[in-house]
Structures are given as structure tokens and as C-alpha cells.
């Protein structure tokens, strides 16, 4: 598929085919796609988790507001994490970067304080989100990006000492009767977005 065709056909899936399950090959391709995500100064302040077991998905679904059914129906839930604390991030990621990248980080990011570093890491997660949504569509998979989740509950359920959850994406195949698909409900995008 051409990239414009991919972007015209992808949408936020509302109803999934609960009989569809990602293959091992698809899971490996998704992992490699995420591993290759770009980030500012190659900081890669993230970790990813693909959750396919029904029990964990059901627990998380209870803390996902309007996304509850989507998580339960979808094949997998991808959770995007950021480092929990700045010191660990700096020791594990910043210390491995070139001197120029480290200088940029010290002068432009870290110099603004810990809250700025955490916010900057959070912004990097959205780069991974964008890559994931486009990449999944190129694999002819459907997805639902989610901020509307209870991050504290997710953190308690999935608890990882080093990372905290920041975003999630349901992944699977759309149900034939999903009314949000573009053939039923055409996408609406602004025309005049360039200045």
C-alpha cells in the first residue's frame, strides 16, 4: 500500500473481531517496528509491552473507561511506558549517547528541571504512538489509540519497577459492523491546515 492510501484507510476502530488473533510473525514485526522508532537525540526513553492474555486484558479493560469493550475484543493491547525516574533514564540512556547529544540534553532539557525532563520523555511516547498507528495500518491491522485509561490502575496491575505506563493501543481486526470505519462513516479532516 502507498502511504496516502494507508492514511486514508486507517481509523480509530470502535468494534473488533474477537475471533482474530495476531500471528507470531505479526507480533515479531510489531516489536521490530517499535524498536526502530525515532526519538529526540536517540534517547529512546521508553519500553513497550504487548499483552494478549485474556485475564490481564480484562483487568486493564476495567480501568479503561469507554475503551473497555475494545480492549476485551482486540487481539492485543500495546502499552507504551516511560522511565519512572530521571536518574535511571540518565544513567541508562543519556550516558550512552554522543557528547553532543548529552550536551543538548544537559543544556536544553535537564537544565529546566525534573518536571521538564519527565514531560519531554512523555512527548517522545507520542512519536512511538504515531509510528505504531501508521505501521499497524501498513500491516493491515486495526488499532485504537488510548489516553482515556486510568494510568495509576494500569501501573498497579502491570507494575514495572523502572517504567510507568503512559499510553495504550488496542490492536486487532475490525468487526464488519464497526460503524466508525471510513466506508460507513467517512473521515473528516480539515482542508486548510497549512499557513
From TrEMBL:
InterPro entries: NfsB-like, Nitroreductase, Nitroreductase-like. The lineage of its organism: Bacteria, Pseudomonadati, Bacteroidota, Bacteroidia, Bacteroidales. Keywords: NADP, Oxidoreductase. It comes from Porphyromonas pasteri. Residues 7-173 form the Nitroreductase domain. This is Oxygen-insensitive NAD(P)H-dependent nitroreductase NfsB. The keyword NADP applies. Belongs to the nitroreductase family. It holds the Pfam family Nitroreductase.
Amino acid at each position: 500500500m502507498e502511504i496516502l492510501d494507508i492514511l486514508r484507510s486507517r481509523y480509530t476502530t470502535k468494534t473488533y473481531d474477537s475471533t482474530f488473533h495476531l500471528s507470531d510473525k505479526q507480533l515479531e514485526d510489531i516489536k521490530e517496528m517499535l524498536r526502530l522508532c525515532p526519538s529526540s537525540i536517540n534517547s529512546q526513553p521508553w519500553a513497550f509491552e504487548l499483552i494478549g492474555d485474556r485475564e490481564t486484558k480484562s483487568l486493564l479493560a476495567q480501568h479503561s473507561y469507554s475503551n473497555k469493550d475494545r480492549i476485551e475484543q482486540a487481539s492485543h493491547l500495546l502499552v507504551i511506558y516511560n522511565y519512572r525516574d530521571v536518574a535511571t533514564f540518565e544513567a541508562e540512556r543519556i550516558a550512552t549517547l554522543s557528547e553532543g547529544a548529552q550536551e543538548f540534553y544537559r543544556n536544553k532539557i535537564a537544565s529546566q528541571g525534573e518536571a521538564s525532563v519527565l514531560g519531554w520523555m512523555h512527548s517522545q511516547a507520542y512519536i512511538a504512538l504515531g509510528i505504531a498507528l501508521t505501521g499497524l495500518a501498513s500491516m493491515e491491522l486495526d488499532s485504537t489509540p488510548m489516553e482515556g485509561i486510568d494510568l495509576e490502575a494500569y501501573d498497579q496491575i502491570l507494575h514495572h519497577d523502572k517504567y510507568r505506563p503512559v499510553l495504550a493501543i488496542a490492536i486487532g481486526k475490525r468487526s464488519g459492523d464497526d460503524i466508525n470505519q471510513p466506508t460507513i462513516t467517512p473521515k473528516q479532516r480539515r482542508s486548510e491546515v497549512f499557513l
